Amino acid sequence: MGFRNYIKRGIKYVFNDHNPPIVKLFVVQKSANEMFKNKSVLITGGSDGIGFCIAKRLCAEKANVIITGRDENKLKEACKKIDGNITYYCFDVSDVKKGKDIINQIFTKYGKIDILINNAGISLHEGNILKVKEEDFDRQFAINLKGSYFLSQNYIRKIIENKMQGNIIFVSSERGSQSDDLPYGLTKIAINDLTEGLSAKFCSKGIRVNAVAPGVTATNMTNLKKDQDFYSSKPGGRFFLPEEVAEVVLFLASDYSKCISGEVIHCNDGNHLQIGFLDSQIK
After folding, report:
1. How confident is the model at residue 7 (pLDDT cuts 50, 70, 90)?
2. For 163-190, b where at least 16 C-beta lie within 10 A, e where not — what string?
3. Residue 216: what pLDDT?
4. Domain that includes residue 230, residue range
């Protein structure tokens, strides 16, 4: 080590505070039906599928729920089907400027957003790289990654400005744990990395960041119906319900998971761990 480095270390030692802060923890137990009372939750892509089930579950827990989507009619229908304090904003998550405006509007109306759930996403089911069109590649990255990225950026900025606690949950996919040549899988690999990166950077600011990674789930995206045979040749032996994923999201959104951040929790019976799991079906 050169003389200059010794000088730098000496200066750093002199001017740094060597008395670390004292951290005290207190356990406060809450009943489940009080966990989300007066909490505001923003869910993108909340008009159907996994997002709808998350919204329904959180409304049942007395949260103030705001859902977003591109189709206003579907958003209105979703709000009619769910009992609870729920409203919607119609916008495309890939519209970064609009997303920033929505974050600001919700903070103005509710004073906060306790939980941001980045659920909106699309898959165009190309099957393999030879069928991928440039415009479809761009569209999937714009919605699945870019939209979540900048919405989270704007959310984090507001949380820090207002000195609040924050909680971000991404809906990824088991495809995010596999090498994949398709845009959908690549966007989910990026989401998993973003989850870990944001957690590392902002946990000291009181912002938790986690993700769920569902397997093949009965939604419009996969064309699976809830009343059909759920047998799967995958190691887990079955497909999955959006309500199952919603329960895991509920746990990550709750104070029960207060000490968890930077995790990608797979909801697929461990299928992502199996060798030879890749096939042509997009989840």
Report:
1. low
2. ebebbbbbbbbbbbbeebebbbbbbbbb
3. 81
4. 33-272
Task: List the one residue out of 44, 262, 248 whose CA is nearest residue 155.
Answer: 44
- DSSP class of residue 222 equals T
Is 28 inside a domain boundary? no
DSSP-assigned states of every residue in 61-123: TT-EEEEEES-HHHHHHHHHHS-SSEEEEE--TT-HHHHHHHHHHHHHHHS--SEEEE-----
**Which of 144, 155, 171 is CA-nearest to residue 100?**
155
Q: 226 lies in a domain?
A: yes
Burial of 140 (0-12, 13-18, 19+ CB in 10 A): buried
CATH code for position 154: 3.40.50.720
Q: How many domains does the chain have?
A: 1
By annotation, the residues acting in catalysis are 184
Q: Does 51 fall in a domain?
A: yes
**Is residue 279 packed enough to be buried (19+ CB in 10 Å), middle (13-18) or exposed (0-12)?**
exposed
pLDDT value, residue 277: 46
223 found inside a domain: yes
| Mean per-residue pLDDT of the chain | 88
- Which two three-digit tokens encode residue 208? 């938790």
